[in-house]
Amino acid sequence: MAVNVALRTGTTVTAAASADPMAGEVFWTDGETAWVRNDHMRLAPSADSALVDLNLDAPPGQAHQLTTVQMLSSPAFTRQFGPRVLSTLALAWVAAGRRAAYVTDGDVRESVHFAAGIALCQAAGCIVTGVQGQPLHTGVGGLVAAADQDTHTALIRIIEQVILPT
Fold first, then answer.
1. Strands of 25-29's sheet, edge to edge?
2. What pLDDT was estimated at residue 152?
3. Which of 56, 95, 122, 160 is most exposed by smallest CB count within 10 Å?
4. Which residues face 21 on adjacent strands?
5. For residue 29, what pLDDT is reported?
């Protein structure tokens, strides 16, 4: 469970926060840097955990169509990454170096649930794109937020394999 707030000016999130009430942590950004408030440390992404959070929310009867559901059965994914299923709080954890990446389907452009986490990841220096590696908020939508370029590249390759198997 997370509490997310974001201030948007036009299409740019200029300030955001994501709170984890259970852990007593608040992750925040001024749009340029990102921090965690409980110990006032600057966020630093890291892929060391190899944990990737997958959003499995889908309309009834459509879960089999989700890229994230297909990723769970991909040998290429399970050989390289450990799947976890969690809320948008995982975006803050990617920015903080606790997770290697986060993947979700769907249009996240106008979602209050994703705005704060995306802003945190971008300010911390994560690689953030649409689910097929395209610029965020273009094309088919979705979201891949990765701690580094290598993790992002590996996930995009896996997504390409599960969407368009060879």
1. 3-9, 12-20, 25-29, 34-36, 41-42
2. 98
3. 160
4. none
5. 95
Task: Looking at mean pLDDT, say which of 86-90, 111-115, 134-138 comes out highest.
Answer: 134-138
Q: Kindly list the domain boundaries of the chain, sorted by start residue.
A: 44-163
CATH architecture assigned to 44-163: 3-Layer(aba) Sandwich (3.40)
The reported pLDDT for the residue numbered 135 is: 93
Beta bridge partners of 143: 104
Query: CB under 8 Å to 17, separation ≥6 — which residues?
Result: 4, 5, 6, 26, 27, 28, 29, 116
User: 26-64 as b/e, with b when 16 or more CB fall inside 10 Å?
Assistant: bbbbebeebbbeeeeeebebebebebbbbbbeeeeeeee
Burial class (CB in 10 A: 0-12, 13-18, 19+), 134: middle
pLDDT above 80 for 164: no
Which residue has tokens 């976890």?
A: 84
- pTM score of the predicted model: 0.88
